[in-house]
Amino acid sequence: MLADEDLCNDINLYLQEIGNDITAEKLVSYLARDDVREKHGISQSITGQYSDGHERKDVVDYRDKVFLPRWEQIKDRIRTWTSENLPEYGPLCGKRIIVWYHDETIFYAHDRCRKNWFHKDASAKPYAKGDGHSFMIADYVSADFGWLQDIQEQANAAIDLVHELYPDYEHIFIYDNATTHLKRPDGSLSALSKRDANGKLVYNPDGSIAKEEREMEPGTHPNQFKGMATILQERGYNVDKLKAQCNKKFNCAPPALNCCCRRILFNEPDFVGVESILEKTCKERGVQVIFLPKFHCELNPIEQCWGYGKRLYRFYPESSREEDLERNALECLDKVPLESIRRSHKFMDAYSKGLDGRQAAWAARKYRGHRVLPASLMADMEKENMK
Question: What's the CATH code of the domain at 333?
Fold first, then answer.
């Protein structure tokens, strides 16, 4: 593409036009403009944020069949705001729910926007080498109250805070789908740990032996794991022609439910319903946990908070001192306006209406400033050929 001199010249003019504020996203948006594509004969679509698994079948299934139904159950008890940022009042079906979104980010001491256009004969200005010191922040944010300030320990501390500060509300914590958040207690029932050969003793999460001696029926497996096939046969499954597992990585072709013994066990309610350590910790203290779908950072308003804070941070005087980094980063996050968090539900509304990732992104851009999508959405999509 860049071998085309006319296109290169137009790109150079565009970059010069936007000055210091150069980002890859702006260049992608420029190349996606209809006038630019028509002028330079660009026919191939520019790959965007939804090429990383966003529309993968298992991810979409979780989003549409697990996450969104849970959101539908609670949304009528969550406070909403008008386009003027005024709270909307209406009948409540139970105690008011406060949703707290969790995430983490890293600030770097030398994170500055340094891209610019200079004359080829201009002298180079020296800058500090590397990103400098880093400062990691993990926090919770809600559209009602803003920021809340080891995941399990942080969850317990957060529960203490929300119960102390906001005792009149029911609280829900929303986390991303990271493995650290989904970790189950050691010794939990898991289809991934079952074997098709002799097994070992089973232990409880506290380290004690769960099954030391047990009569087996038929009694041909003393102190040994029967194997997945035997367990499934005892429960009425015909597994004569099934393999133990589809491949080494257990990557069964979707939407398979009974392609191998491990997949059948994996989908059994006893295995699916095992809670993570985080869910168990919060549930014991009266707080629900909801996990976001994978690759759906647009559903977490805290991502916009990080971006807003980092944008402010880049205007602060540069310093290599760790104490300056920490103070400036926290100060910038304190300046994030609640209004930006309260417009975060457009994507959930879009997915609830059956839109895919590409259509949802289009709707979020078109109705920028709206909290939810208007009734004219489908008609507008028809006009824009977005169906």
Answer: 3.30.420.10
- 381 contacts 359 by C-beta, under 8 angstroms: yes
For 202, the domain range is: 186-274
pLDDT at 153: 84
DSSP code at position 67:
I
How far is the C-alpha of 356 from the C-alpha of 353, rounded, in Å? 9
Which residues, at least 6 apart from 241, have a Cβ–Cβ distance to it below 8 Å? none
Q: Which DSSP letter does residue 123 get?
A: P
Question: How far are the Cα atoms of 58, 196, 212, 226, 241 from residue 244, in angstroms, in the given order?
Answer: 21, 7, 26, 13, 10
**Are the CB atoms for 147 and 334 separated by under 8 Å?**
yes
Element (H, E) at 222: none
- Its pTM stands at 0.70
Given a contact cutoff of 8 angstroms between Cβ atoms, the answer to whether 251 and 126 are in contact is no
How far apart CA 291 and CA 179 sit, in angstroms, is 11
Q: Tell me if 61 sits within 8 A of 100, measured CB to CB.
A: no
- Which of 43-47, 150-154, 182-186 is least confident? 43-47
As a whole number of angstroms, the distance between CA 129 and CA 149 comes to: 32
CA neighbours closer than 13 Å in the CB half-sphere of residue 112: 16
Residue located via tokens 């340094």:
114
Whether a cis peptide bond, with omega within 30° of 0, leads into 255 is: yes
Q: Are the CB atoms for 49 and 141 separated by under 8 Å?
A: no
Query: Which long-range contacts does 61-64 make (Cβ < 8 Å, 24+ apart)?
Result: 61/255, 62/293, 62/294, 63/293, 63/296, 63/351, 64/351
In a domain, 29, yes or no: yes
Residues 6 or more apart whose CB falls under 8 angstroms from that of 215 comprise: none
The CB-side HSE value for 364 (13 A sphere, CA atoms) comes to: 18
Is 203 in a helix, a strand, or coil? strand
368 domain-assigned: no
The pLDDT confidence band at residue 197, using thresholds 50, 70 and 90, is very low
Q: Which tokens sit at 371?
A: 């909290």
Strand pairing partners for 209?
A: 203
Question: Tens digit of pLDDT for each residue in 52-70?
Answer: 678 888 889 899 999 999 9
The count of structural domains within the chain is 3
